[in-house]
Specification:
Blueprint: H1 7-23, H2 28-35, H3 39-43, H4 51-60, H5 65-70
Length: 72
């Protein structure tokens, strides 16, 4: 089965994650060091982020998945 990529959705997810990171004054390296997730690739919408990865990032930023998607 081929992987589906919705570039518009990935771009919105990327922007929201970048906003959450910048709001906390964190660098991409800070997020990586604390989560082992390369957020730089996600923030450029170059990868199809998994639900598990997004859930972990939401936990890190102390936001629920449902709240994250309400803003998208």
């Amino acid at each position: 089965m081929a992987q589906i990529r919705d570039q518009e959705l990935l771009h919105k997810i990327a922007l929201k994650l970048k906003q959450l990171r910048e709001k906390r004054g964190l660098s991409q390296e800070d997020v990586y060091n604390e989560t082992d997730i390369h957020i730089a690739r996600i923030e450029t919408a170059k990868v199809n982020v998994s639900v598990s990865t997004l859930s972990r990032l939401c936990g890190y930023f102390e936001i629920s998945l449902s709240e994250f998607f309400k803003k998208i």
